[in-house]
Design goal:
single chain, alpha/beta, 7-stranded parallel beta sheet, 7 helices, globular
Length: about 260
């Protein structure tokens, strides 16, 4: 099913002020597009504004830094006057391969700044206004690596995402009684443009085609019973549901979307 064929309520986010971090590519971009199709007023953050992008719809900042977070918070209030929905989608890993001993203190700090503290800082910046209006939604994009860590290169990333999931649950219990819903989404392998590039590279290096390279990559992750990776728009659809009034009684939960990759309950 293509993204354009997924049914959605055309006006479900009308009047909602929304911020999506990491919104220029991958899952974050898909979330931005989905919420805009629902008529939300959406700002996205990115280190650089994508070519052809509307500068008024982006906040250019490095969300993994304290200064970047401060800029995002101030600019969002300046442009929108407040916030109703915060989607913390920023994340990733640039750690070197080589296992645990290849990860220096600096690498560990970078992984946590990007995958945990970026969300914590923005939550802290927007929560006072949400609490004052007694309404709001916060969604954290975690990862199935929080329970299925891969040691070769992304151990720091996995640990940071585990911390994010734990933090998300704790925050939900604190602010839920005051009208704020907090949930998290844990995607598995998702075929973003970056993942497509990886598959193409693996196919070239292995002297095979993309389909075989994709299957090999899924096998290395433990297998995906559904037989394919997620599409970014599928993750975006789950996020949109949780952000919408259709999920008005859901808080403190984490939803896995991985094609059955995690083998346990």
């Amino acid at each position: 099913m293509n993204a354009s064929k997924i049914p959605y309520a055309a006006n479900e986010f009308t009047g909602k002020r929304i911020l999506v971090t990491g919104g220029s590519k991958g899952i974050g971009e898909a979330i931005v597009n989905r919420l805009r199709r629902g008529r939300g007023t959406v700002l996205a953050t990115a280190r650089s504004i994508p070519e052809g992008g509307n500068a008024e719809q982006f906040i250019q900042a490095d969300g993994s830094t304290r200064a970047g977070a401060d800029h995002i918070i101030k600019t969002t209030f300046d442009r929108l006057g407040g916030l109703d929905i915060l989607i913390n989608s920023l994340g990733g890993s640039s750690a070197p391969g080589g296992g645990a001993l290849a990860l220096t203190d600096e690498v560990w700090q970078q992984e946590f700044e990007l995958n945990l503290f970026s969300a914590v800082r923005l939550d802290r910046g927007f929560l006072p206004a949400m609490l004052k209006q007694r309404s709001g939604v916060i969604i954290h994009v975690s990862s199935i690596q929080r329970t299925l860590p891969l040691f070769e290169a992304t151990l720091g990333y996995a640990a940071a995402k585990a911390a994010l999931s734990n933090y998300s649950k704790g925050l939900s219990k604190e602010v839920g009684p005051r009208g704020i819903r907090v949930n998290s989404v844990a995607p598995g392998f998702t075929e973003t443009k970056a993942a497509e590039g990886l598959i193409e590279r693996l196919a070239t290096e292995g002297g095979t085609d993309k389909a075989a390279a994709r299957q090999s990559l899924m096998h290395s992750l433990g297998g995906i019973p559904l037989g394919r990776p997620n599409r970014p728009d599928e993750v975006a659809e789950l996020v949109a549901f949780l952000a919408s009034d259709r999920a008005s009684s859901i808080t403190g939960s984490e939803y896995v979307i991985d094609g059955g990759n995690i083998p346990t309950i």
